[in-house]
Write a structure and sequence with these properties.
The protein is of the alpha/beta class. 26% of the residues lie in helices and 27% in strands.
Length: 328
């Protein structure tokens, strides 16, 4: 298709969407399988249930050649047709609503803190123009430094102002607050759905949270929020003096990252940039799947979701295993 025709059709789709929104309704859409990264990344449909999935092989390598027929999607045990399918192979084509949550309770040196901040700044510069980012910090208290913005200079400026480290740790309370922040976060930008992600940088040990971890996971699942962690190392010479593997943390044991479709990345004081590059690759190596909500679903009812890959030897992580039906 010629460039001017493609641009015209894209404009027509977007204008039609806003026309229907002004009437208080959203048009139904037909099944779409999209592999062109320049196309609109998601259908705008209130009756569409959307999941993000990451697939890896036995060695942990991302699998990027899958087709819709390679997936099986179930709702309450019943197989559902995949009405929308979109692979993502570049971070610039991945639009995010991202909360960066920094653990300020540790004893980072000035050099280590600066390395961390610079890696975060470079990471946000890789985000596409439609993404939004928020910044929060936590120790004995939870504080929002910057609400959602697509002006990443604001994030950079707020990072430079963080000086106070120390105190107890409230990881789960901070993550719960981050999940709540998405109620005010943009969900669509220029026709593209924004994937909702929390990225927490922490030593993984909580000392004073009051939120129930299972409730945190449930609320994140219902709205499709993935929680990723960058974990600072904790070692015990009493266990194995030669071991380079960090100790499991309370965050690991809780399953918060795994059960929300996220993943943990271990970091030392010198390789922040390497880890953030790995996270960028993770976000750029996923699939978006969606199906139309059955018409008999009742508002405020909860339903179980399950996605599998039919090809043997592969593992899949999804950002939600249940969803809540909104008012219809």
């Amino acid at each position: 298709m010629k460039p001017y025709k493609t641009a015209f059709l894209a404009s027509l789709i977007i204008l039609s969407f806003f026309y229907y929104v002004s009437l208080g309704q959203v048009p139904a859409t037909k099944s779409i399988t999209s592999t062109n990264q320049e196309e609109l990344l998601v259908k705008i449909d209130t009756d569409l249930v959307t999941l993000d999935a990451t697939v890896t092989d036995a060695k942990g390598n991302y699998v990027l050649d899958l087709k819709p027929e390679d997936f099986e999607l179930r709702e309450d045990g019943q197989v559902r047709s995949i009405d929308f399918f979109q692979p993502t192979t570049a971070l610039k084509n991945t639009s995010l609503s991202l909360v960066l949550a920094l653990d300020l309770s540790g004893s980072l040196s000035v050099e280590e803190a600066n390395l961390q901040k610079e890696a975060i700044k470079k990471f946000t510069q890789q985000l596409d123009k439609n993404s939004f980012c928020a910044l929060m910090g936590f120790n004995y208290k939870v504080e929002i430094f910057q609400e959602f913005t697509n002006d990443y200079k604001k994030i950079s400026n707020k990072l430079d102002k963080i000086k106070d480290y120390g105190g107890s740790t409230r990881i789960y309370d901070a993550l719960d607050r981050a999940v709540t922040m998405f109620k005010k976060a943009p969900s669509i930008r220029e026709g593209k759905r924004l994937r909702q992600v929390v990225l927490v940088i922490t030593d993984g040990f909580d000392s004073s949270s009051i939120i129930d971890k299972k409730e945190l996971i449930r609320r994140a699942n219902l709205t499709g929020i993935s929680i990723y962690s960058i974990t600072l190392p904790s070692f015990s010479p009493l266990i194995n003096q030669d071991s380079k593997e960090r100790l499991p943390t309370l965050l690991d044991v809780s399953g918060v990252t795994r059960l929300t479709g996220g993943r943990d990345f271990s970091v030392n004081s010198q390789n922040y940039q390497e880890v953030f590059d790995a996270i960028a690759k993770e976000f750029a190596s996923s699939y978006t799947l969606a199906y139309h909500l059955p018409k008999d679903r009742v508002a405020n009812s909860t339903h179980k979701l399950e996605v599998k890959v039919k090809r043997s030897g592969l593992q899949v992580r999804s950002n939600r295993n249940n969803y809540l039906v909104q008012n219809r």
